[in-house]
Amino acid sequence: MESIRKILIVDDDTLFLNLLAQALRERGHIVTTASGVQEARNALLADDFSLVCSDIRMTDGTGFELLDYIRTSFAKYCQPS
């Protein structure tokens, strides 16, 4: 049995964002969505996530910039086990 995960999905394509979120929710996951980098940063500060799934190119930044933000701001959680 799969464990329930809290997942943050980041994409500025609303249709794709909602389809992916719905598919993951149907599989029992707790899903938060963000339509860009800044919104994702706010979500990361407000909650803990097991997984972040991000688009690469968005209107307010890139998935790589978001990854760098996660690495620097949440370094203690990004260490290999």
UniProtKB/TrEMBL annotation:
| UniProt keyword annotations, A-Z | DNA-binding, Phosphoprotein
**GO molecular function per UniProt:** DNA binding
PROSITE patterns assigned:
RESPONSE_REGULATORY
Alphabetized SUPFAM superfamilies for the sequence: CheY-like
Q: Keyword Transcription, does the record have it?
A: no
Q: Which is a Pfam family this sequence falls into?
A: Response_reg
Q: Where is the Response regulatory domain?
A: 6-81
Q: Where is the PTM 4-aspartylphosphate found along the chain?
A: D55
Q: Does the keyword Phosphoprotein apply?
A: yes
Superkingdom of the organism of origin: Bacteria
- What function does the entry list? May play the central regulatory role in sporulation. It may be an element of the effector pathway responsible for the activation of sporulation genes in response to nutritional stress. Spo0A may act in concert with spo0H (a sigma factor) to control the expression of some genes that are critical to the sporulation process.
**Matches recorded under PANTHER family:** CHEMOTAXIS TWO-COMPONENT RESPONSE REGULATOR (PTHR44591:SF25), STRESS RESPONSE REGULATOR PROTEIN 1 (PTHR44591)
Name of the protein this chain belongs to? Stage 0 sporulation protein A homolog
Upper lineage is: Bacteria, Bacillati, Bacillota, Clostridia, Lachnospirales
